[in-house]
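Two entries, shown back to back:
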Amino acid sequence: MKKVSSEAFEQLYNEYSDKIYGFIFLLVNDREVAEDLTQDTFIKAYKNINQFNGESQLFTWLFRISRNVTIDYLRKKRLLKFFSIEKYQFESDQQTPIEIVMKGEATTILYEAICKLKLSYQEVLILRKIKELSIKETAEILNWNENKVKITTTRAIAALKKELMKRRESNEEVI
């Protein structure tokens, strides 16, 4: 059985907790819940550190635990609404107020469309396109093979485009 010192685990927590929290927050859209689930992730990791066999990176192992903890939470709460972009807007001094508003509206529409997709599509889009993880890292986190990540990403993007077109058409009918 592997034993890890509290100092080593604290270093692990300090290195990865913000990334884990960010991923969970994108799925649950609630700061307190994301904080709780992040803590649950690290508690589970600490209790099960002996199961980490080094076949994957520690980072992807932690992400997989956080994904499982979050999915368990979502199943229990039956939450299907995931996140809102307003909290992720980054303003630049070089943008005009109109540009900021237009970019914010476009990004909000994009994230609302992502929320309409099935969970596997949401996860792969978050990991690959928002968190910018590699195909290999995404495969390890989702416990998929790399080919499935590629195929699902392609399908998720196609479904997202379709959802955006549907939204665009329904907005044109209103006008």
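entry 2 starts here
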Amino acid sequence: MKCKICKGEVYITIKYPKMALCKEHFIEYFEKRVKKTIKKYEMIKPEDKVLIAISGGKDGAVVTYVLKKLGYNVECLHINLGIGEFSKKSLECVKKQTSYIGVRCHIVDLKELTGKGIPEVKSRKPKCSICGTAKRYIVSKFACDNGFNVIVTGHNLDDEASFILNNVMNWSTGYLARQGPILPQKGKLPKKVKPLYELTEEEISSYAEVVGLEVFSEKCPFAKKAITLEYKEMLNKIEETRPGTKYRFVIGYLKNRHLFEKEIEDIPLMECKICGMPSSGEVCSFCRTWELKEEIDLKVKG
């Protein structure tokens, strides 16, 4: 096979839409898809101050690389979760990635901030749930404290398809009503967007490789095989014989999301009496879990 555009040596064969591309034209194709997604869903404006959550994995690194290349005003935030060697290796990779891309990266150490890393937190909740709460809170708090009006995450087409399928299988209509490529600003919480929303994990991995990004792929020692990973495997098997299934499934969901909107409980948010962040109760889940007595200050000095 030859590259569809220049007839040069093929680097990757895209399954949907089916085409073979050389390295140069794959990079061009990938970046055009990101630009199209940003424009289609009105994610980011040129004047926005953008914060990207980055862990060392392929998704955060790739979305940082592309947005920086496209000229957006981006900075990164990495949270050291205090999970031994895993967190150390993750941090090392993040430093290499952001240095290579040429973007400022802020580091928040959870243990230094609260006195406890993820392993030290005592709770009946699963560690993954505790970790998710911590990451969402710190990213939002950091953005608020430092004037970022858009938060970017690296969620991709595979993530979204498996999440939607999981919630359809369980008829979790509340989640189905809220899922999508953007989460609009609510109160002081900045808008959250997913520029890789229509790109597959395979395409993202290939892009990381072709532009020379080092990627951290080690699994967290607390991670168990989540049901969404099983759904990813199922969808991948269907995709092999019916290319485009994941894309059509996600786009079809977006067209029909309005069917679930009546399920949204519009719970008014109040301010956490400890930290002042939006909360459904007097004390937010982060302050409760970490037993905080006063607000943490994440404003960058200097």
